[in-house]
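Colleagues,

Please find the record for the two-part complex below.
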Amino acid sequence: MNLILLAPEEIHHDRLACLRDPRRLRHLKEVHRARVGDVLTLGVAGGGIGRGELTLLSDDEARFTFDGLDTPPPPPLPVHLVLALPRPRMLARSLEHVTAMGVKQVTLLHTRRVEKSYWQSPELDPVKIHEHLVLGLEQARDTVMPEVNLAKGFRPFIDERLPELLTQRRGLLAHPGMPQACPTGLTEPVTLLIGPEGGFIPYEVERMLEAGCEGIHLGPRILRVETAVVALLARLF
Amino acid sequence: MNLILLAPEEIHHDRLACLRDPRRLRHLKEVHRARVGDVLTLGVAGGGIGRGELTLLSDDEARFTFDGLDTPPPPPLPVHLVLALPRPRMLARSLEHVTAMGVKQVTLLHTRRVEKSYWQSPELDPVKIHEHLVLGLEQARDTVMPEVNLAKGFRPFIDERLPELLTQRRGLLAHPGMPQACPTGLTEPVTLLIGPEGGFIPYEVERMLEAGCEGIHLGPRILRVETAVVALLARLF
């Protein structure tokens, strides 16, 4: 928690913040070992960042005072990430990684090699997803919550949503064996598609290439999804 | 397990492999759902890679026949990674990530913000470390085991080992706030130093810069160690 992310309703008179949830209170005490008088980084969801002084820390409340939260959050990555739904624990970690790196649009996609049971995982509960996004934002000192959409059918996604995602965006399909090495230093908007463990099947690759995506690869090494997604984002932007 | 990593002593007459350990047998059955006649990728530790046919799969043994394991493993990254010892679970994942990406030299370093208890973790048992390295190699279809060294004192490391690590290697110190952005597309040998959660302390940064390291950063976002290490390796090489 390199930033304490505040909901707008936790802020009073533009200079006082009160928080009461057990997770952040515990973190303040156990990880920050915070004491009254400490100055920590605060941010308001969707808004600015600043420094605030801890004025009270009790069992059920922490209070900060600050002058203004007016530093803008770090810039987002210009990417819409389309990720074949990973298995639950890897989903949780991948959401934290990509949120910390600045991704603001995520679509979780069903493909042939996604196990159907993954769609029943409690990790897909919006409350759980929100928790992982908050952890990613707090880590990276960001305040802007990503949007996460579910696309539970591959064909409807290809027919109805992908064309729209490729309007004024470069589509990049990351898949082992594609002809082009992952480009670097991009600044234009990108839709980045990443397959599941075991990869996209040939039919899926074909459909995405037909839709206008360029196939890219990360070299001869096959990486786990959570490694590949970080490596791709780090190289692309 | 995209490659079945064989010890030299598991290979007989250059064309037959027998394996008996429960982990790989279980993986063959439960993940690969392998059946006699299936053709899978095999590699011999420290050596080549090839395809082999499963000729027997019982409760306590699997046998493969193959013509030759003569495809070379993927090229390594020209990097010696010096990583402040992460907390145990993050160490395990980081070792798998960096092994999959092709790192062959790892030094785990004590720094001021490394909790001393981490050095007592069972994850540092050479047998446990070896397990994570094997998982990384199997993931990336590599056969060459990384070397992992422990440097339990910061000053002895700086005085005795770092100078040697910087002989004919470019030293890069990854630390938030350093002046230079992480370079890309390097081909020369690098020693890459990455701090713990909470970062190196100013004294440590100073000593590493004095020793000849260049300070680099990954932008305004503070990433978890396991995210940062993958992002740095992906950008650098």
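Residues 4-66 of chain A form a domain with the Ribosomal Protein L25; Chain P fold (CATH 2.40.240.20).

Comments are welcome before we finalize the supplementary table.
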